[in-house]
Structures are given as C-alpha cells and as structure tokens.
Amino acid sequence: MVEPAIALFGGAYEKASHVLEELLRETGARYVLLLDRKGFVLAHKEALWAPRPPALDSLATLIAGNAAATQALAKMLGEPRFNELLHQGATYGLYAEEVGDLALLVIIFDNTAPVGRVKLFGKRAVQSLEVITKEALVEPGTLGIDREYHAGASALLDELFGN
C-alpha cells in the first residue's frame, strides 16, 4: 500500500494551515493545497467566497502525476529539475511549486488574481512549508511500507529514468 512520506498532524498541521491561509489572503486565490509527491493531500484551504472545490483526491493525484512527468521532461532536456508548473486557461490557472523533495504547493486561482502575485507569495510560502515538512518526514517502513517493496520500487524507478 502506498502511504504518504510526510505526516502532518498537531502543531505541524496547524503551522502549515496557517501558511496556506496567509497565502490565500495574499494572492486572492480560490484554493491552496499542500500535497506530497505521491498525490496525498496533506493540507488544504479554500477561500470563503470560492465555490465547492473539485474532488481533492483526484486533483492531487493528477497534479502529482503531472509534476512527475515534468521532472522526466526536465531530465530529458538535461535539466536537473523544473521547480514550478504553471497552467493557465481562459478563467482558471494552476501554479505548483516544489516544497523540498517530497511535497508540492498548489495554488488554484482565477483570472482576477495576478500571476506575478501568485508566484511571488507562492515562493515565500514554499520557504516556510519546506521547514515544516522537513520536520514531518516519515521514514519508509514506519507507516507499514515493506522495506523490500521500497527498495524494489526505487530500483525500478531508477532503471526507468536512467539513474
């Protein structure tokens, strides 16, 4: 069973939630999410005026997959990594940035929120969230992941991406 690499609870969860609330206020975004790279929602906030968000588990899984595909593209182009993703449509935009090696900050905004403001305050939030998530790391095996499975999966991914 796949389990999150970061366990936010208690004080760590409260700190992360506070950062996300501030980010909503500063950017005028509709939704902000903190995800791990496996697609688990660690924390999220939504603006009071925003309509009901889409299914967060599906959204998180798709964003994590998109981030993984983008990292593979970066490697193909000789880049060590791309640190952020930006998608813009006619009405909505999505900005995602890495929070350390294991998490992603996602900001979903509409066309009234300036992209520059979203990116600026998103980068500031990442700095705070990186400290919080480092303290909340879970060692493989402590939540029930078999070490043999973890080693096999890591080897398979290394082989797949040429590491």
Automatic annotation (TrEMBL):
One of its GO terms (biological process) is positive regulation of TOR signaling. Residues 16-109 form the Roadblock/LAMTOR2 domain. InterPro entries: LAMTOR2-like, Roadblock/LAMTOR2_dom. GO terms for molecular function: guanyl-nucleotide exchange factor activity; molecular adaptor activity. This is Roadblock/LC7 family protein. It comes from Meiothermus ruber (strain ATCC 35948 / DSM 1279 / VKM B-1258 / 21) (Thermus ruber). The lineage of its organism: Bacteria, Thermotogati, Deinococcota, Deinococci, Thermales.
